[in-house]
Amino acid sequence: MTYVRCVTEMGMGVDIRGLDYTSASKRAVYDAIHHSSLNFQDLIGKSGNEMKLKVTIGIPKPNEVNGDEVLKVLPYGSKTIEVIKGGLEILNEDKKDGTLIANAIIEVSFESMIK
């Protein structure tokens, strides 16, 4: 199967206190998917469940993200996630807490109708 990327969305998620990497990542995905409403799939004879969604999260400590939890934010499609080093973390003076920013890119693809 050949898939064609149709949409790329970006989002940002912040955790002000607690340094919860999964929470910031979920917020970034939520932010990305709420920038638009995808209605074109009807025009190409596809459903939302036929979407292939690739999520990339940029965050300072990728190993702290529960990818399965992040993907639950997405209501449709087959989903994959890659968590890479990125984002931003500013620690408080005591270095025990701080502000955390995660960035998300979501690529939405459909199977090509061209054979």
Structural commentary:
The protein is of the alpha+beta class and 115 residues long. The protein has 2 helices and 5 strands. Strands 1, 2, 3, 4 and 5 form a 5-stranded mixed β-sheet that branches. It starts with a strand and ends with a strand. The relative contact order is 0.33.
* Tally of contiguous helical segments: 2
Q: Which regions are unreliable across 5 or more consecutive residues at pLDDT < 50? A: none
User: Mind describing the biggest β-sheet?
Assistant: 5 strands, mixed
- In terms of DSSP E residues, the strand content is 35-45%
Helix content: 10-25%
CA-atom Rg in angstroms: 16 Å
Distance between the termini: 10 Å
- Apparent shape: elongated
Helix and strand pattern = EHEHEEE
Structural class by helix and strand composition: alpha+beta
Overall mean pLDDT: 92
The total count of strands amounts to 5
Topology:
Elements: E1 3-15, H1 21-33, E2 52-59, H2 67-71, E3 78-85, E4 88-91, E5 98-111
Parallel strand pairs: 2-3
Antiparallel strand pairs: 1-5, 2-5, 4-5
